[in-house]
């Protein structure tokens, strides 16, 4: 018998803004435990009209280590859609893109397994 496994991240709708700003954006976040620092897409930072301080990171995974360009954004507020619970992320790194392909988005049949 062949067994296959699918690892999926929880995706949830959130509201994001910079602390003290009135501009608030609804978007989606993936919740995973594979990172010890929060990342956001640079396009979201642009929508929030934030320019972060440029930096270069060394990202290390199980099989590789690479240098990537990033920017640090301070005081990002993340809340549920009803804004009942809000979390302040004091330092967030942004990237131009995340290395996730469309074929990695879970389908209903993956959930039913």
What's the topology here?
Elements: E1 10-18, E2 25-31, E3 39-41, H1 42-47, E4 53-60, E5 65-79, E6 86-95, H2 108-112
Parallel strand pairs: 3-6
Antiparallel strand pairs: 1-2, 1-5, 4-5, 5-6
Can I get a quick summary?
The protein is mostly beta strands. Helix content is 10%, strand content 46%.
- Measured between the Cα atoms of the first and last residue, the distance is 15 Å
CATH class: Mainly Beta
Kindly state the number of beta strands. Answer: 6
* CATH domain fold name: Cathepsin D, subunit A, domain 1
Report the helical percentage: under 10%
What is the H/E string?
A: EEEHEEEH
Sheet with most strands: 6 strands, mixed
Question: What ranges have pLDDT less than 50 throughout 5 or more consecutive residues?
Answer: none
Mean pLDDT: 79
How many domains comprise the coordinates?
1
Q: Structural class, from secondary structure content?
A: mainly beta
CATH architecture: Beta Barrel
Query: How much of the sequence is in beta strands?
Result: over 45%
Number of helices: 2
What's the Cα radius of gyration?
A: 16 Å
Categorize the overall geometry.
flat
What does this structure look like?
The chain has 113 residues and is mainly beta. The protein has a single domain (10-98), classed as Cathepsin D, subunit A, domain 1, CATH 2.40.70. The chain is 10% helix and 46% strand. The protein contains two helices and six strands. Strands 1, 2, 3, 4, 5 and 6 form a six-stranded mixed sheet that branches. The chain is flat. The two termini are 15 Å apart. The mean pLDDT is 79.
